[in-house]
Amino acid sequence: MSLTFLLGGARSGKSSLAIELARRWTGPVTFIATGEPGDDEMAERIRVHRSERPGDWATVEAPLEVREAFDCVADETAVVLDCLSLWVANLLARGDEAHEIEAECAAVSALAAARRSLTVAVSNEVGLGVVPTSELGRRYRDLLGRINARWAADAEHAAFVVAGRSLPLS
Predict the structure, then answer these.
(1) Which residues are marked as active site?
(2) Complete domains list, the chain, with CATH
(3) What is the model's pLDDT at position 49?
(4) Residue 141 carries which DSSP code?
């Protein structure tokens, strides 16, 4: 099938669109979640996201080991990866170097693009706002921008999601 890459701002409708696309899949679906409930607010966000997914979908919690999560999914199963932005933040927080993160993300992007079944990956566009005041914030923004560009290049379909509407990226 194909890799679909959905990019957009916070609360732009990316996750909802990813779920809608996966609901159209006639076979099984696995949701790879990268978020961790580090505080009450994040735990509530995760709870809401879970409630929006069909109950028969498998969920793999993979805040760090996304490649391993993909390796465990059968090829006839659709995958929703939500989201690259949290995965990259988790890898940075663990202390991984930018070049290591880019290499791992490139490997997973190639793996996702080579799958026969539908794969939908979600990421935040963080480069449209103000320049972060911290060195870590600027490193994260720049790193995620490069990773998003790689996933968009590897994807058969890429879209920028704004206010619940998707704009194709060519």
Answers:
(1) 49
(2) 3-168 (3.40.50.300)
(3) 86
(4) H
